[in-house]
Amino acid sequence: MNSYLLSLEQLSNRFLEAAARHFAYPYWFILSVGHQHLYYLGADHVFIPEHMQFRGTDFLWRQFLDRTEGHTRLALIEGRLHLVEEDRRAAVADAEAAIRNFGESGYVAHLAHRAGVSWHCPEPSEERELGHLSQRFGRDATAYHYFARQVRQWQRVTSGETFDAYLSRYLARFAGAAGWSGYDFSLDHMRALHDAAHDHPFDPEACQCFDLDLDPGSSPVSLASLDFRDTQVVQEIIRLWQSGASLFVMYGAAHAFRQEAALRRLLPHDEFETAWNGTN
């Protein structure tokens, strides 16, 4: 499976191509056979309701609904939104709140909720991913990777929640998922892990620091996480496709670029459309 995903070099070239084309998010591609359609959107991770990618998402969502009317259809989204507390997850009923709290994933959950379409996250569980990464890299490196992901997300979120409240809630969830008896998932420990690995003190506003920490080109943990997640998502898409379901998928652009290569090889289809007019 991994051999079908784009390599990091190929992924870098795709982003260079995107920059040269001055394309507008979301990137998208569509695979079709008969009445069955896979719409895959590659998003910019933004939490701003006015961002133009949400207009593009609206257009593609309406097209998806029209083309799949009367047939089994599902929405798949990034981010394990189903694990969010029920009272916070209720924000998906409102478009603006969905975006401000959960970005593009929240918005697709909102669209699906409004249309009566089921949605879920096709990623491996946190228990499985934490176990997989900790076996290879140890608990500290794995915990810090999860922490860094949430720090970077907090930097993008526009809901106004404080850093300590936002991160503490997620760290408590990660601690429960990991099940590592006696391990310290506190904010103080995560800050200490950061400071031990960097030549500057922890700063929750330092976007560049956490971009580098999460770069799969320089972080083996991030690369392993990316491979593990992308492989699981492709497998789940294949399973649902084989069941006859049409799918509307919204993930970050890097996932879309990587998975497109695999899905075009592994899913039977007789039509292919893309934002880039079929060129690769």
Tally of separate domains:
2
Structural class: alpha/beta
Average pLDDT number: 92
Low-confidence residue ranges: none
Helix content: 55-70%
Assembly context of the chains: single chain
Provide a brief overview of the structure.
By secondary structure, this protein is of the alpha/beta class.
Question: Features of this protein?
Answer:
2 domains; 6-stranded mixed beta sheet; 11 helices; 6 strands; globular
Give a written overview of the molecule.
This protein is α/β, with parallel strands linked by helices. The protein has two domains: 168 residues, no CATH class; 88 residues, no CATH class. 56% of the residues lie in helices and 12% in strands. It contains eleven helices and six strands. It has a six-stranded mixed sheet with strand order 4-3-5-2-1-6, sandwiched between helices. Helix 2 packs parallel to helix 4. The radius of gyration is 19 Å and the shape is globular. The mean pLDDT is 92.
Sequence-ordered SSE layout with sheet pairings:
Layout: H1 8-21, E1 27-33, E2 36-43, H2 53-68, E3 73-77, H3 86-89, H4 95-115, E4 118-120, H5 126-137, H6 139-156, H7 163-178, H8 187-197, H9 207-213, H10 220-242, E5 246-252, H11 253-266, E6 271-274
Parallel strand pairs: 2-5, 3-4, 3-5
Antiparallel strand pairs: 1-2, 1-6
Helix pairs in contact: 2-4, 5-6, 5-10, 6-7, 6-9, 10-11
